[in-house]
Amino acid sequence: MNIPQDQKTSPVEISPEPVPETNGSSTPEVVTEEIVETEEIVEPEELTEKSGKKSNGKIWIGFDLGGTKMLCKAYDAKFKEVAFRRRKTKSRKGEKSILDRIVDTIEDTLEEAGKTKSDIAGIGVGCPGILDLNTGTILNAPNLGWKKTPLKKILFEKFDCPVVIGNDVDLGVYGEYSEGAGKGANSVLGIFPGTGIGGGFIYQGQILRGTRSSCMEIGHVCVQADGRMCGCGRRGCLETVASRLSIAAQAAQAVYRGEAPVLRELAGTNLADIRSGAIAESIEKGDESIKEIVITAAEHIGRAIGNMVNLLAPEVVVLGGGLVEAMPTLIVDTAWNSSKNQCLKSSEDSYKVVAAKLGDDSTVLGAACWAKHTFSDNQKKG
Ligand SMILES: [Zn+2]
């Protein structure tokens, strides 16, 4: 796999630094609605009310590690949630501080579940950045400021249980495959348009991966040979025309040109204010120019899906992330129809395109399910 791994973008992963897109030549990162969401940290009393359902027996721990927030959930053997804890990552405080927060968050979740570390069957962690999946090391995660952090080893030594780490998008798709929109399918392609566009592929229960790191960098498939510069340094990648950031940038231009009066009222021209919800509302209330932008983006995604169908023949294609959640019918139907113009005629009826079901839980639940798959189905130990 020669495609840069660091561009794989989580559906919930957001840079802590707002960098408005200017000429399209810089890495496209911008603060969006997820930043606001992370301000809501669950207080212990709320947590007791919402979860705290005690369970007997061993538990599986899922962990979603992001640049701005971390989410930990404990599940029983049937993957019913028994406790959770969400915290800010505070990535600027450095590696040791983040690692301490991860350990504290897992310990707090255990306490909430009424468990100790000896009750953990296994821990799965969805991570951003470039990973060495063989050693469980985060090789480079710019959002965390980490380089060569042996996360698996650290958690194994701390909790004395099997630990597996994986790419956060891969584990999000695995979550949808295990318990969400792709449940029961033989193979699932997941595409999550966010700041970039993340992708993952599950084939007969396995996450498709490279020799060392993850693969399925669908956001960096070239769709316009002479297109705009991408954050990866090449031109015309799918995410330059179809990511939420790209859509927001095009929408801001439409507002500026006076072509989107509803969005102008809702969000103005500030990229950070043009969130998925505002885009969806402006379309509902009649901004045809914004609808066209979203349709064009979804058609690009559909063409990528058609190409993937020709290569890998997924049974189910799951589209997720905040943008899809805000307007599932428009994006899913458009992408599905567009994909049929790209795939071979013989494959037209071999797959379906659906919206994700698990929302922000896809990675944390997928991480726990992947831990179970890794340590109980295959009898491997961490
Ligand atoms: Zn690219």
TrEMBL record:
<dbReference type="Pfam" id="PF00480">
    <property type="entry name" value="ROK"/>
</dbReference>
<feature type="region of interest" description="Disordered">
    <location>
        <begin position="1"/>
        <end position="31"/>
    </location>
</feature>
<keyword id="KW-0418">Kinase</keyword>
<comment type="similarity">
    <text>Belongs to the ROK (NagC/XylR) family.</text>
</comment>
<dbReference type="InterPro" id="IPR000600">
    <property type="entry name" value="ROK"/>
</dbReference>
<protein>
    <submittedName>
        <fullName>Glucokinase</fullName>
        <ecNumber>2.7.1.2</ecNumber>
    </submittedName>
</protein>
<keyword id="KW-0808">Transferase</keyword>
<dbReference type="InterPro" id="IPR043129">
    <property type="entry name" value="ATPase_NBD"/>
</dbReference>
<dbReference type="GO" id="GO:0004340">
    <property type="term" value="F:glucokinase activity"/>
</dbReference>
